[in-house]
Amino acid sequence: MPNGCFDVCTNPICGSPDELSILAPLIYDEIGINLCTTFAVGTDISTTYPTATNASVSVIDIAYTYGDENVEITQIAGRPNCYSVKLANLTVTFAVTLYDESCRALATLTPTAVYLPNSTTAATYDEDTNPTSVTLEIFAPYGVSYNSNNATPPVYTPALNSIGFLSSANVVTQGLNLYAIPKLLGLDTTDDEVTVGLTLILQSLYFCGYRVTSAGRISTPKGSIVSGEESDCIKFVCGNLLDRAIKPLDLSPPSCEGNLKKDCKKPCMNDCTDTLNTNSTACQSACNNGNSSQTSSGACTGPCNGIYSKTN
Q1: pLDDT-derived band at 291, boundaries 50, 70, 90
Q2: Please, where are the H alpha helices in 128-207?
Q3: Residue 92: beta bridge partners?
Q4: Whether 134 contacts 116, CB under 8 Å
Q5: What three-state secondary structure class fits 163?
Q6: Residues 90, 104: Cα–Cα separation, whole Å
Q7: Origin, by domain of life (predicted)?
Q8: Cα–Cα nearest to 118, from 129, 136, 130
Q9: In the chain, alpha helices (H)
């Protein structure tokens, strides 16, 4: 560092670091199961979309409640780092897109189906492929997240976060997360039904700080909206994208750039030092050029080069 001092609070460092300090969502454990059922799409396909021959499916959301015959999360007695998670009565909303034989999209339907129904008389129940519930054990050493109610004081209960494709439910949270991957196994245009296999994945996840090797900043491709360069504004619009250049601090050894957050006064160039003869022409010149004065002993006082004070 110049003259042994560099204050990032007034002079932030630009460039790219060799290593990044990141806060990453890390999966500590996960387990998955496969389910399958057939359900109605809610539309007369043969009448409304007579040319439909194929379909694709994706999961929009998974809805559930907590309590008996629903989702239950329990810390295992005597094994505090693991939890028992009972999954039951999951209402899954799908996006089913219909295509004709030329693979042109005709429509997207949004049916719902209950996986792991809490009754053996439910339409989607099957002892082998879609039972009433499953119980999974998962390693969650830092615990789970919690729901709270409006009581006074509030009551907190263990929570399971559903990761879907709704704007209100498409993020991970610390603790337990659940998401689903579907596969269309059959399309029946006569009975207006689809058969969908569903992989449910339960995972424990926590945010942790880590150091990772940096390969540099992302170079974002730029699209052009005008042609020609006739003015400063057009040149800017046609030019490179703006980018932020200040690098994150390299906090750990050997750089320890966190120690740079100090208010330091940088000695000026050509200042008098202990090793310089204070009566020398160089010292006098430094004091004179800096509008400083020289004591009877020859030491510089007052501002050095109009910036900082220095006395030897």
Answers
A1: very low
A2: none
A3: 62, 113
A4: yes
A5: coil
A6: 32
A7: Bacteria
A8: 130
A9: 45-48, 232-238, 281-289
Q: Which two tokens stand for residue 269?
A: 């160039």
> What CA–CA distance (Å, rounded) separates 24 from 175?
14
**The pLDDT value given to residue 263:** 72
| For residues 283-293, average pLDDT | 48
52 plus 187 within the same structural domain: yes
With CA atoms as reference, report the closest residue to 86 among 130, 140, 135.
Answer: 135
pLDDT (tens digit per residue) in 31-65 = 999 999 999 999 999 999 999 999 999 999 999 99
Task: Check whether residue 70 and residue 196 sit in a common domain.
Answer: yes
The confidence band for 166, taking pLDDT boundaries of 50, 70 and 90, is very high
Burial class (CB in 10 A: 0-12, 13-18, 19+), 153: exposed
* Chain segment 125-150, per-residue pLDDT in tens: 999 999 999 999 999 999 999 999 88
Q: Which domain holds residue 118?
A: 21-212
Q: Find the radius of gyration of the CA atoms of the chain.
A: 33
Co-location of 150 and 39 in the same domain? yes
